[in-house]
Amino acid sequence: MVLSKPFIQNTMDTLRIYWVLIRITVPIAIVTEVLSRLGIIKAVAPAFAPIMNVFGLPPELGLAWLTGMLVGIWGAVPLIFTLAPASTLSIADVTVFSALILFAHGLPLEQKIIQKAGPGMTVTTLLRIIGALVYAFILHQVLSATGWLSAPVHPAWLPASNSATWPDYFWDLGQTMVSMLVILFLLSWGLELLKLAGVLKLLMAALSPLLRLAGIRGEAEHLTAVGLFLGISYGAGLLIREAQSNRIEPRQIFLSCAFMGFAHSIIEDTLLMISIGADVHGVVTGRLVFAVAATAVVGMVLRSLSDKAFFQRLFRLNIVKAEA
To answer: Can the keyword Transmembrane be found in this entry's annotation (predicted)?
Structure first.
């Protein structure tokens, strides 16, 4: 009975999240399909070409990334194979695009949460977008030079893709929404099992040396690890409380939020992207290495700033005090 309570709560939370996702994803997917059939996406795709060409990706996927940045990963995933059929993509393509999505998604909501912990919303949002662009570029260059992951992609899960007729499209969309619910339950229950078994706690402890390399120390280590495994809502949510109590130094809070911007929900979000064909080393190993290196660079910049410059440009104590 004791074990059943967390799972009942977890199930109810998942259903609430799913209902929110349905209300966002379905209208966006239908509008995207209408625009596609009218030829509008094909007409506007060249506008995304300058950016997407840098990563060797079809320009149409720029619309999916834009959707992901504004709405979140679950808003973008159903669009991917509608905009660019799986038959036209390689594993490298999906891995590079997944990197863009994993770094920069759901920015209005997630960055608002981070802002409440003190770091400026504009600068942390720019850090995530720049991080996405730099990492995806490096990844693309490595994969292009080596030919690694050049094989055609074969997704384990194929969200709604191109359908000949509207009835077929709505049937595929319905299947995608059902699959989404199943995946959400599997991920949320899996995380709950890892928490109950104490595995997450062990993983967080093992991560401490890695976070120290990034310049994150003390209590900020634990909270950053929480964000890495469970997401910004959890990690930054705890940081807000610590910021209000003045138990963590502001520069450490900023570093923690910067790291979480580069890498968070490392289990749930990553498994989702792997299910559509992304390579695990590209979306986990490389991303973690980049997050540590990039955060260390951010730390060097922070140490070079005076307190006046830091609190004027990067960190807002008045926001933290207002939330207290």
So the answer is: yes
- Rounded CA separation 94/322 (Å): 42
d(CA 115, CA 117): 5
Q: Is the pTM of this model over 0.70?
A: yes
Q: Which amino acid is at 302?
A: L
Q: Which of 226, 242, 308, 275 is nearest to 74 (CA)?
A: 275
Interatomic CA distance for residues 249 and 300, integer angstroms? 16
> pLDDT tens digits, residue range 39-88?
887 788 788 999 999 999 999 999 999 989 988 898 888 889 889 999 99
Q: How many CB atoms lie within 10 A of CB 87?
A: 10
Q: Is 195 exposed, middle or buried (0-12, 13-18, 19+ CB in 10 A)?
A: middle
- Residue carrying structure tokens 């792997």: 274
Q: How far is CA 293 from the centre of its chain?
A: 18
Amino acid at 221: E
Could you give the number of structural domains in the chain?
Answer: 1
Sign of torsion over alpha carbons 262, 267, 273, 277: positive
Residue span of the structural domain in which 198 resides:
4-323
Confidence grade of residue 162 (pLDDT, cut at 50, 70, 90): low
The Cα-based distances of 215 to 57, 72, 140 in angstroms read 34, 28, 28
Three-class DSSP category at 90: strand
Give CA–CA dist 145/182, Å, rounded. Answer: 38
Cα separation of 57 and 282, whole Å? 16
Of 25, 37, 29, the residue nearest 165 (C-alpha):
37
Cα–Cα distance, 117 to 234 (Å, whole number): 12
**3-state helix/strand/coil string of 225-254:** HHHHHHCHHHHHHHHHHHHHHCCCCHHHHH
| Residues facing 119 on adjacent strands | 315
Please tell me whether residue 315 adopts helix, strand or coil conformation. strand
CB 89 within 8 A of CB 169: no
